[in-house]
Amino acid sequence: MADDQMDASFPHSANSPGEAAPEKKIIVDEDWKARVEREREELRAKKASGPAAPDPNDPPLPPPSLTSLAGVLALEVMSCLGSLPDPASGKVHVRLHRARHLIDTIEMLRRTTQGNVSAEETAALEEILHELRLNYVQVQSRVTPGG
Questions:
Q1: 82 dihedral zone (left: phi>0; alpha: psi -120 to 50; beta)
Q2: CA 32, 34, 37: angle at the middle one, nearest 5?
Q3: Contact 113/66 with Cβ under 8 angstroms?
Q4: What is the per-residue burial (b if ≥16 Cβ within 10 Å, else e) of 47-83?
Q5: CA pair distance 112, 127, nearest whole angstrom
Q6: pTM surpassing 0.70?
Q7: Neighbour-count burial of 2, counting CB atoms closer than 10 A to its CB (0-12 exposed, 13-18 middle, 19+ buried)
Q8: Backbone φ and ψ of 17, nearest 5°
Q9: What pLDDT, on a 0 to 100 scale, did the predictor assign at position 17?
């Protein structure tokens, strides 16, 4: 197609020889540049200040163990037996079915780890189970009719 036959309305048409190309405008958002630079400075300052200080309400914990797991479950059993308030609501509830389930869970842990734990851990699990079962029977006799 010849230059004189090109559609003048087409935005990318070639200019005639000797005719200067229209100047393209580049719009730069100066506010954006300043915001990016400010964020970079904040990040540099944060890195320079070192690691964040540990939260005093998050003390280090002992290494995980079978007895600590059983202890956590035992605390939940005591909450279900009404000995401790529910951590979420602060109210005392008796939930015998849940308490029985948790005691059975601790018993399952004792059985499945038998022969793979120390004598101290075995004794601790048996003591925890004994105490929980006694408490369970006491609470059950108080809250069930004819008990």
A1: left
A2: 110
A3: yes
A4: eeeeeeeeeeeeeeeeeeebbeebeebbebbbbbbbe
A5: 17
A6: no
A7: exposed
A8: -60, 140
A9: 59
> Can you read off the two tokens belonging to residue 82?
């009404």
In order, the DSSP letters of 29-98 are -HHHHHHHHHHHHHHHHHHHT-SPPPPTTS---PPP-HHHHHHHHHHHHHHHBTSS--TTT----B-HHH
Per residue in 28-62, pLDDT tens? 666 777 787 888 888 888 777 766 677 888 888 88
Token pair, residue 34, equals 């300043």
In this structure, what token pair is assigned to residue 37? 């630079």
Buried b / exposed e across 114-145, counting CB within 10 Å, b at 16+? Answer: eeebeeebbebbeebbeebeebbeebeeeeee
Placement of tokens 């369970």 in the chain: 136
